[in-house]
Amino acid sequence: MKERLEALRAEALQELRDVAGPQQLNDLRVKYLGKKGALTEILRGMGGLSAEERPVIGQAGNEVRAAIEEVIETKQAAFQQAETENRLRAETIDVTLPGKKTSAGAVHPLNKVAQEIEDAFIGMGYTIAEGPEVETDFFNFEALNLPKNHPARDMQDSFYITDEILMRTHTSPVQVRTMKAMNGKPVKVICPGKVYRRDDDDATHSFQFNQIEGLVIGPNIRMSDLKGTLLQFVQLMYGKQAQIRLRPSFFPFTEPSAEVDVTCVKCGGHGCRMCKHTGWIEILGCGMVHPRVLEMGGYDPNEMSGFAFGMGVERIAILKYGIDDIRHFYTNDLRFLSQFVRM
Questions:
Q1: Where does Mg(2+) bind (predicted)?
Q2: Is 109-340 a domain of CATH 3.40.190.10?
Q3: Which of 35, 71, 227, 238 is the one with CA 20 to 30 A from 87?
Q4: Residues of the binding site
Q5: Which residues contact 134 (CB under 8 A, 6 or more apart)?
């Protein structure tokens, strides 16, 4: 049996010298030292030995096991060291190389202008109200004095989902929802958000754009309050030199209604190509809330009055920054957007 142990040691050490990798090393460990390995198989025969032979063979078996384990541990440490060195070589970082320059982000010009508009009106005591972009026909049209088949509906070519559900064409439904929620109490809100109309995309139009509308309701609200509010807003956006004028217009939900022009931001009102040599540029629509709209919102038009206005954020941004094409806002061109990093 002792000769078999010595032969096993010689065979195992020879195979371990030629081992090529960790998996092969583990296979050899199982082959020689495992529960069903060659060394265990030989030592099972110790039961047939005499009492004098057992200690000798037991000691010889332990020496063979120790010799094999020593080589396995040495080889295993060498493989681990080689693996660590390979990983370090693959993950080496040259700290002397220049760093990668990261581009500084910025608030999108539309978001920036929307925030400036909101800040201007919050400074005048307004609060912000929001509502769903998928709206009912009642809130989008009927409650705003636009019954079914009203010809003014053609002014807002709509995306209908069903006969009674559509993508909102303006943020005015938020005003109606706010009025109903206030139960006849005074209101002073602005309503920002996305709106949708079936329109062809070009330099001045888009099927989706952003609006901010305002609504004030209370006792003795007058047209002069509306004009003063809009003048203060325009001067906050375009400077103290900016002036406004109101031109009569028509909106089904306001009476009287007006279009608001601002002195041309490019020529200061002297006349140029941008303002078509008139000195004025239209920026928004407004008017006194129609009595019928007040009634639909839960107000007595004999007790309360109010004004409303609405503007396109893109329109305000185009004038503020001198942009010539609304599509620049949506194409994600970094050459365009990078101009606003430090504004």
A1: 255
A2: no
A3: 71
A4: 255
A5: 161, 165, 166, 167, 168
